[in-house]
Design goal:
single chain, mainly beta, four-stranded antiparallel β-sheet, about 5% helix, about 45% strand
Length: about 130
Amino acid sequence: QVQLVESGGGSVQPGGSLRLSCSASMGINKPTCMGWFRQAPGREREGVATINSEGETWYTDSVLGRFSISKDNDRNLLILQMNDLKPGDTAMYYCATGPGVQTVYNDVCPLSLAEAEVDHWGQGTQVFVSA
């Protein structure tokens, strides 16, 4: 059974940084797509950042320039580096895997839940940004 386990959440002040990690029992390079999604209270779950097996990345507009998704192959971890955090980033953050959308050029990893067809979710890690 595939297991995704997130860590690294916590409480920070605006402008602060956090580094989320996700370990995957199947190995981080086996899924076509891996990504981070988040859900704030009273809101729908949304895609934050995704990465394909070739290392191509996609970000939602609100985190561009502040968040960075990557893979630590030595430690078999999916990483989300979050800088300049804002109160609007407060949410439960989930690690996920999905099949991606194959194109002529590459495997695209969608940010929308409808297109991502997530097949595995982690249990989530809470991020709270407040002064």
